[in-house]
Structures are given as C-alpha cells and as structure tokens.
From TrEMBL:
Its EC number is 6.2.1.1. CDD domains: ACS. Residues 25-82 form the Acetyl-coenzyme A synthetase N-terminal domain. Catalyzes the conversion of acetate into acetyl-CoA (AcCoA), an essential intermediate at the junction of anabolic and catabolic pathways. AcsA undergoes a two-step reaction. In the first half reaction, AcsA combines acetate with ATP to form acetyl-adenylate (AcAMP) intermediate. In the second half reaction, it can then transfer the acetyl group from AcAMP to the sulfhydryl group of CoA, forming the product AcCoA. The gene is acs. Pfam families: ACAS_N, AMP-binding, AMP-binding_C. Mg(2+) binds at residues 538, 540, 543. Keywords: Acetylation, ATP-binding, Ligase, Magnesium, Metal-binding, Nucleotide-binding. This is Acetyl-coenzyme A synthetase. Its cofactor is Mg(2+). It catalyses: acetate + ATP + CoA = acetyl-CoA + AMP + diphosphate. It comes from the Bacteria. Residues 84-470 form the AMP-dependent synthetase/ligase domain.
Length: 650
C-alpha cells in the first residue's frame, strides 16, 4: 500500500457545498476532544428528548471506576425519533423503499405515515403477547419491510431486540435465543435470495426444539411457502396480529441508558458475545454519523446494501437514516443475480444518490468485468461508501473509476459492532482520500497506536489500535457477562478500549487498518471466531482436534483454513473433507464453511501444549519459507508434515 502524495484524491470542487469542509472538520474535531461536554450538549440535541439531558459522558475505562453512560438523565423513545417526529413535515415521504429479490417482482414502499401506523399496530400486538420494557425478542428475518417494523415496534414498547442473521443455522439461532432468554421469536415463512428460498420458519422450529424460553412465534407470510401459520397458541400470523391491533400506541418513555438491542458477534474466544447497545447515545451516534459521513440530504434515496442482521444494517439501514428522515432503500436480493448488473440497475431504477457496500461485493463484481457496470447509467450517484474490511487499493480504484465514473468520493468507514457507528472515516467535503486508508477520526474519537507492551507510539507508526476515550455509540456491556466486557476490551491496555485491529498511521496522520490481530477472521466483511469453527469441527465424531486460521482470499478478503486431526483409525479423504465442510455449514451457517481443510496427524504445540497459530497462519498463507523459530515446539517434525500437505484454497 502506498501513502505517497501521488495516490491522493483531493476533495472534488463540486463538494465545496458539503456540510463540513476541511477547516470545519479540524475546528469541530478540536472542540469535540477539548470540550466534550460542550460539544455533546450541542450535538446530543439532534434527536428529540422527552426529558432533556443535562449530563453528557459519564465514563471510566479503569478497573476501579469502570462504567460507561451518556446523556444518562435524559429520556426518549427511539421509535418516536424515527417516526413520529417526521409525520408533520414528511409524513408522505417514502421511508422504506423495498426492492425485491426478483427484478420482475413487485416492490413496495412505506411512507413515514404508513410505517408509523404499522409499527404502532405491531407494537400493540407485541404488548398483547406480554412483551414490554426489557423483554427480549429475537428476530430471524429476511430483508423485508416487516423486519424494520419489528425492530421499531420493539423500540416503541421498550423491548430489546436481538436480530440474528438469517444465514445462521438453527443451532446458532438456538444459542442466541437461549443466551438472552427471548420469549418471542419473529420470523418469516421463507426468505428469498438470488432466486432461491431460505426455510426460515422451519429453521426456527428446529431451533426451538433446543430452547424453552420461547412462548410465541410470529410468522410473516412472505413467499407463501411452507403453509399458513399453525395458530396453535404459540404460532401467530403477523398480518392477522397487525390487522387486529389498534394503531394507537404511545411511545414508552425510556431512559437514555435503557437497552435498545443486543447483537451477537464473534470474538477471539468462546461463544458469540451479546453486544448491548442502549438508546440515547446510540441513536445520537447513528444519526450524526449517517448525516455527516454521507452528507445526507432528505429526501434523496440512500442505499446501504448490508443485511439488517449485522450492525451495519441496524445503524445505516434503520436507525441512522430513519432518525434523519431519509428514504432508505432495502434490497432483498444478492449482487450477482440474475446477473452482475443487478446492483447498478437498482441504483438507476431508484435514482440512488448514496451507495454503501462492502469490499467483498466489489471484488466479486470486479471479477465479472466492467461491461456489467458499463451497461448502466449510475448518473444519480454522488457518494460511495465502503465498510466491513480493509478495501484493497485495486478495488478502491475500480469503485471510484468504473462505478462512480471518477465523480464520487469514497468514504471508507472503519468501525465495529461494538462502536455502534463510524469511527475512522473520511468526510466527503473535508477529507482528501488515499485508497485503502480509512483516513481520520470522526468527532470525539481519539485513536492511539500502542505496541505489544502497551507503549504509546507517536507520529508515523504501526501498532495495535486502541481508543483513549468513550463516545456515545459505544457498547455498554456483554449481555449477561459484564466481567467479560471488561476483560475483552479493557484489560489488554489498561485505561483504553482495545479494538482487536492492527493499524498504521502515516506521516499525514491518516490511519490504515491492517486487519485483526486476534483470533478473529474477517470473511466477506463478517466476523468469525476461530474458536467457534474449531468447536464445531471437534463436535464431529471423527475429529480429535482442530485449529482454524485465516488465509488470504481473492474475493472474501480472508478465507477459513482448518487443520484437522482425526481420531485414530479414521482416514482423511476427499469425502470426509466435503463432509466436514457441510458439517460446519450445518452447525454455524454457510459463512463459517472452511475454504480449505488439511488433515494433520499432529498440530504444532509448545511443550506446555499451546498451539502455535503463528506457524499455522504462515503455512495457510503459503509462506512456508518464513516460519520463524520452531525450536520451542514439543515436536518440531510435525511442521514438515504440515508444509508437505498444504491444501490450496478451494
Ligand atoms: C471489524 C469489525 C463495521 C461494521 C461491519 C463489520 C473490520 C470494519 C473496516 C474498514 C478496515 C474494517 C475491522 C473491525 N473493519 N470496517 N473500513 N477498514 N477494516 O463489523 O463484524 O463488528 O467487524 O471489521 O477488523 O474490527 P464487525
């Protein structure tokens, strides 16, 4: 990667009108870190409060006084901010513009008024099933407007939603339902993706054979597949509930620090963590970053091409855009079906001005050739965004030149499930761009680089990325395990939040994320814990031991490479390899499927029995010439076998 001036893209002249220019950014940033109380007193007011806050950040990252709160004495309702407050000014404007999987299918759009009506009815229906403040409700939903309705209905009554990505297996879903003891599950009969159907309701039925907290399952009839809901007292038809409910549902008054949602994400160890976000700070952060980073101007059509099952969908399809009165496009389909023009056809059809997507999608489309892009106009586009993983400069240049016709700035937004919203990102009217760099911190964000011992690195340097101060969108705890929250993020470098990412800062102060430094793999912009894949593998009756590492992958960014030691007497052949891949897909979901499985008679371990992943990573990367010191291994000879039997990626 180069950071020389030749690769710099200055702010285009047409962007002189942007809300914040370079001088404005510097001044606002200075104020945000020098006078955080004054800054957040002003910016906290961008949302509507029932009882205004007087406090802003109350936090400490130290073990002794550990705690994080923002705007703590204020009260609000998040759904009222996303709906009610727009009714007088933009009630007839489209809030959700829904584009179906099948280009020939019928789209739908819901105005703010229609969305408000449906959310209120569904919120009343949830209440009639016993839900209220603090209840946990799991959503296992396709990309349809009802998913947004369900999230906002939870927010309206103070229930905590936990959206589980619809690509996860019944087993993974069951674990996430059990962890937070959800009493209600909302799903659809089937989802649709790329012309295929996904059996969501059948997966829920299977998951529920392992869970006993669930009292009600609400099914949206989307495809009509799988028959009508059973109406057996546990299963309910979404449409029937909505039709029967009153449209009058006053929003519940919530404290700023009352939970809004739980979202499970993989870590370096153990089972997925329930990341908890609260109401006030999260909404301020989602709304503020959405408006400023995307320079959003209502009522233009904005499209975040993520799934609502991930944090990107929460913050940038639902909460940020709707708090800002945006028209948010929701796409049910996939980028390469029916063909590789689909995304850009949707852009043309709906005159999308801002498009936000992941590098993995760009790399997949780039491979198909420019002709698929060239046959579309894309003249409505004025800004492009990238999220989820480092964007390689080749993909960046392609996005800029071929997709954006050289006209549109690219905001490469670095953030995490834990941060709630953008943290290091360009502002399109303020920041000169360098392909592959997430550039500079957003307001109130104080990034620092430290070495392995925690020594602060100054100037141009490379190290581990930590954040020195809290910000309103920060996660507040791990559901049910506050000790794990502290341990995971605040123990490695006392007094700082550790991101898990490696990062370089260049001479201009620009940040270049280099990828995870922990045992987390970033597959297609989605986080996968190596420990999770390992425990799925060892659950197979023929597997004795497994070690999983990341490897470079041309489209996914990182692929999953699994070393598997079989039980005595088993033979590793192609059939077993395929079976193990299927097994992991079934245990966790397709995103966890290994790209390479190597059968290994032994794994490289230290004399104390610790697997030396550094060596496994090198072999998976194909860098067998630079394995480093192997003399501390209990049995250095295992390495020769591993090198000799390396598997090329599928
Ligand atoms: C991890 C967080 C951000 C929402 C979607 C993923 C990586 C994310 C970037 C970027 C380089 C990035 C980091 C981070 N990441 N955005 N623009 N440049 N890396 O959220 O699943 O919580 O994953 O994604 O490694 O730690 P997530």
């Amino acid at each position: 990667m180069s950071d020389d001036k030749a690769g710099v893209y200055p702010v285009p002249a047409e962007w002189a009108h942007a809300k914040i220019d370079a001088a404005g950014y510097r001044e606002m940033y200075r104020r945000s870190v020098e006078d955080p109380h004054g800054f957040w007193t002003e910016h906290g007011r961008r949302i509507d409060w029932i009882k205004p806050f007087t406090r802003t950040g109350d936090w400490s990252f130290d073990a002794e006084h550990f705690g994080i709160a923002w705007f703590a004495d204020g009260t609000l309702n998040v759904s009222a901010n996303c709906l009610d407050r727009h009714l007088a000014t933009r009630g007839e404007q489209v809030a959700i513009l829904w584009e179906p999987d099948d280009p020939a299918g019928e789209g739908r759009s819901l105005t703010y008024r229609a969305l408000h009506d449906e959310v209120c009815r569904f919120a009343n229906a949830l209440k009639s099933l016993g839900a209220g403040k603090g209840s946990r409700i799991t959503l296992y939903m396709p990309m349809i407007p009802e998913t947004t309705v369900a999230m906002l209905a939870c927010a309206r009554i103070g229930a905590i939603h936990s959206v589980v990505f619809a690509g996860f297996s019944p087993e993974a879903l069951a674990g996430r339902i059990q962890d937070c003891d959800s009493t209600i599950v909302i799903t659809a009969d089937e989802g649709r993706r790329g012309g295929k159907t996904v059996p969501l309701r059948a997966n829920v039925d299977e998951a529920l054979t392992h869970c006993n907290s669930v009292e009600h399952v609400i099914v949206v009839r989307h495809t009509g597949g799988g028959g009508a809901p059973k109406e057996d007292g546990r299963e309910h038809d979404y449409a029937a509930l909505v039709a029967a409910a009153s449209p009058d549902c006053p929003p519940e008054e919530m404290a700023a620090e009352d939970p809004l949602f739980i979202l499970y994400t993989s870590g370096s160890t153990g089972k997925p963590k329930g990341v908890l976000h609260t109401s006030g700070g999260y909404l301020v952060w989602a709304a503020m970053t959405h408006e400023i980073v995307f320079d959003y101007r209502a009522p233009e059509v904005y499209w975040c091409a993520a799934d609502v099952g991930w944090v990107t969908g929460h913050s940038y399809i639902v909460y940020g855009p709707l708090a800002n009165g945006a028209t948010s496009l929701m796409f049910e389909g996939v980028p390469n079906w029916p063909d590789a023009s689909r995304v850009w056809q949707v852009v043309d059809k709906h005159r999308v001005t801002i498009f936000y997507g992941a590098p993995t999608m760009l790399r997949a489309l780039m491979r198909e050739g420019d002709q698929w892009v060239a046959r579309t106009e894309r003249s409505s586009l004025r800004l492009l965004g990238s999220v989820g993983e480092p964007i390689n400069p080749e993909a960046w240049e392609w996005y800029h030149k071929v997709v954006g016709g050289g006209r549109c700035p690219i905001v490469d937004t670095w953030w995490q499930t834990e941060t709630g919203g953008h943290m290091i990102t360009p502002l399109p009217g303020a920041t000169a761009l360098k392909p592959g760099s997430a550039t500079l911190p957003f307001f109130g964000v104080v990034p620092e680089l430290v070495d392995a011992e925690g020594k602060l690195l100054e100037g141009a340097a490379e190290g581990n990325l930590v954040l020195a101060t809290s910000w309103p969108g920060q996660m507040r705890t791990v559901w049910g395990d506050h000790a794990r929250f502290f341990q995971t993020y605040f123990s490695a470098y006392p007094g700082k939040y550790f991101t898990g990412d490696g990062c370089r800062r260049d001479a201009d102060g620009y940040y270049w994320i280099t990828g995870r430094v922990d045992d987390v793999i970033n597959v297609s912009g989605h986080r996968m814990g190596t420990a999770e894949v390992e425990s799925a593998l060892v659950a197979h009756p023929k597997v004795a031991e497994a070690a999983v590492v990341g490897m470079p992958h041309a489209v996914k960014g990182q692929g999953i490479y699994a070393y598997v030691t079989l039980n005595a007497g088993e033979t590793g052949d192609e059939a077993l390899r395929a079976e193990l891949v299927r097994w992991v897909r079934h245990e966790i979901g397709p995103i966890a499927a290994p790209d390479a499985v190597q059968f290994a008679p032994g794994l490289p371990k230290t004399r104390s029995g610790k697997i030396m992943r550094r060596i496994l990573r090198k072999i998976a990367e194909g860098e067998v010439g630079s394995l480093g010191d192997t003399s501390t291994l209990a049995d250095p000879k295992v390495v020769d076998d591993l090198v000799a039997n390396r598997v090329p990626a599928a």
